[in-house]
Amino acid sequence: MSEFIIVLILLAGICISVSAIRRTVLTRYLFNKMRMLMPGMSQTEREALEAGDTWWDAELFTGKPDWKKIQQLPASELTDEEQAFIAGPVETLCGMLDDWDITYNRHDLPAEVWDFIKHNQFCGIIIPKSYGGLEFSDYAHSQVVMKIASRSASAAVTVMVPNSLGPAKLLLNYGTQQQKDYYLPRLAKGAEIPAFALTGPQAGSDAGAMPDSGDICYAEFEGKQQLGIRLNWEKRYITLGPVATVLGLAFKLYDPDHLLSDKEQLGITVALIPTHTPGISIGKRHYPLDSAFMNGPNWGENVFIPMDYVIGGVDQLGQGWKMLMQCLATGRAISLPALSVGAAKFICRNSGAYARVRTQFNLPIGAFEGVEEVLARMAGTSYLMDAARQVTCAAIDSGYKPAIISAIVKYQLTEAMRRVVNDGMDIQGGSGICLGPMNYIGRLYQIIPVGITVEGANILTRSMMIFGQGAVRCHPYLQREMKALGEADKSKGLAEFDQLLSQHIRFFLSNLTRGLWFGLSNAYFSQTPGNKASRSYYQQLARLSNSFALTADFALLSIGGKLKRKERISGRLADVLSHLYLCSCVLKHFENQGEQIDDIPLLDWACQYSLHRAQQSLLAVFWLMPMRIPAVLLRTILFPFGKPYAPPKDVLIGKLAQLLLNDSASRDRLTAGVYLNENTEDASGRIEVAFKAVLSAAPVEAKLKAAQKNAELPKGSVNSVLKQAVQVNIINQAEADLINQAERLRLNAIKVDAFSNL
Ligand SMILES: Cc1cc2nc3c(=O)[nH]c(=O)nc-3n(C[C@H](O)[C@H](O)[C@H](O)COP(=O)(O)OP(=O)(O)OC[C@H]3O[C@@H](n4cnc5c(N)ncnc54)[C@H](O)[C@@H]3O)c2cc1C
Description:
Helices cover 59% and strands 9% of the residues. By secondary structure, the protein is α+β, with helices and mostly antiparallel strands. Strand 2 (213-221) and strand 3 (224-239) form a beta hairpin. Helix 9 crosses helix 14 and helix 14 runs parallel beside helix 16 (403-428). Flavin-adenine dinucleotide binds next to strand 1, strand 3, helix 18 and helix 19.
């Protein structure tokens, strides 16, 4: 086998160095073949592919990441003003939210909550101060959504939409000055409620295929004959649609009478249309898994709008898809990841506390190994999620518009939320299942698929977007090679392709050599940053990044354009890239938080988990490759001694579980930013209070148990021996009160609701 590799390397070496041989033998053949096999691409696909930019994803694709690029990224920080907003209006808003009442009694936010949201500029988080908005960083925006999500998902979605892919973002990037001057101050103070209408009954995941149309024509509008657009559409699932005063509407624009130019099909266009415009119908409400946020269909019949309703005016006609994709390139990374992390942190903190408070078999349920395992997974996952959220926000605040990374965090963090919520449900047992005002988790469990489906469901994000777009945008040569292949002047294209091909072969060979060396040495000698706790993870990241780059190249070479439809392969490659990105974020986050020694178990769990997942997905790709012998050969080069990475080690489980079962700085860091309260009548407040009381009483409990062991007190529950323990001076009255208080609060924390009217 080794002879075969040497011959392969020598042959490739000859091809590269002798350009005449390369051009005749290799380039011409590949150029002609690949020109024919180039997959067709629609305009919407091309625009989606070109949206945003790349960052650390491109480094991972090189197989030799430049660590400086992630090391130099400053950690996210809140300004004094942002901190004051979160400690002030956000805290107050959370205190006003009663998710049970919102969901089942009102099916809406109370009027005073709507007013509070509007008057405190919650709809203007991203709008500049000059237009009356808050002009917060993306990190601050994420912190706001995260905190509200830990209190009420319906309220979080209501705040999210105007600040993510709403009209404000489109106006800020593409609006005319007149549109900005009119709408932005109104949106900032909530005088306008915006909705963004893209999805329709026939166009869901494939939104670019919408049948909604607009024809350019002349018509009378506000007493004047004007050039404008006659629209017909049908949309559904539109968040805030039922209460919107202005719709950001996407449609396909046509110029059948050639009033603007010879071109008949102008492409997708976005207009901002007041909902009172004649011909618009705002339908009834959808009921998305019992959630109370406003969501519903709308449609328009022969609605005439003047040209200046188009966002950006005449200059932006037909540019709608590009505008949407550019805005989504960053927007996708903020709202839904913030909502997911808010839910995960909140559940992690409460389930840990509940596992300490709830006793069975005379022990807190958290003391059982089975429960510990679940708690450890929840803590590790939440750490990983928050790392990805914070590092990605920092990248966006530094000016990157990382389209592929935003898809990764949307997909990975919403899926991780699904796992944490499910784990939390298991820990809560029946108290998670019986819905009511005292249940803090059941509503979150119900609402999980909403986050996963919104902005394109995750199956599509995983199997089409991440690797499909990633390969073209992040690969050092692929996009330029595709351009050369598509060159109209064939000889110019051939010359460019030849240059790129020789560089590409060198790149492949150097990755192959490094892959062999990393495989043999386990990347032990690779130069990476990191300290004693983190260096070996950096080294493994270097190794797997190299393996990924090589495997991606091999998949592209062996499957070519058909890879677009091989979603089982591209989905797994997407998982490899995703987990390498998550692991990078974990390392960066650990450093940003000052390399806390207490957090090392969290670092270990999150790194071991993501490296193992990356390895498993990579190995699965080899099984799916069509060229079996080279695929097996490549796998043997990259993993000569079998599988180097195992799932998080058992020794970590106890440490991580303890972190959630005790009041510690590490627990506070892990769950920082969620809404906390100590109201014994509140669904989560009562658990927090009981947790603290049970921990305060723990030393007294230990004294009593020790006395029982020494036969100084009779056997039985600590409560049954309390009186006697005071009488014989094993504990004093104050200590007995601590136990009584803990027991009272513990019983309150495990109560569930019952109803007479069901
Ligand atoms: C509560 C809620 C709020 C929403 N808010 C808005 C809003 O404000 N504005 C707006 O415009 N839209 C909104 N949407 C629409 C949302 O973005 C779309 O629902 C989503 O893009 C998926 O469309 P669909 O539900 O029709 O699913 P479908 O397109 O029918 O897809 C069904 C499944 O097939 C998968 N699938 C489809 N094609 C592929 C493929 N090629 N490869 C792999 N898998 C594929 C999808 O991933 C999904 O899992 C909202 C939706 C919901 C449920």
